[in-house]
Amino acid sequence: MEVSAVPLKRRIPQLLIHLVFILFSLSCIIPLISVLSVSFSSEVDILKNGYSLFPRVFDLTAYAYVLYRPIQLLGAFKISILVSVIGTFLAVLAMAGIAYTLSRPDYKYKNKLSFYVFFTMLFNGGLVPTYILISNYLHLKNTIWVLILPYLAVPWFILLLRSFMQKIPFHIIESCMIDGASELRIFFQIILPLAKPGLATVALFTMLQYWNDWWLSLLYIEEERLVPLQYMLYRMMNNISFLTSSTNMMPPGLKNVELPSESARMAMAILAAGPMLAVFPFFQKYFVRGLTVGAVKG
Question: Is the pTM for the entire model greater than 0.85?
Answer without folding.
Answer: no
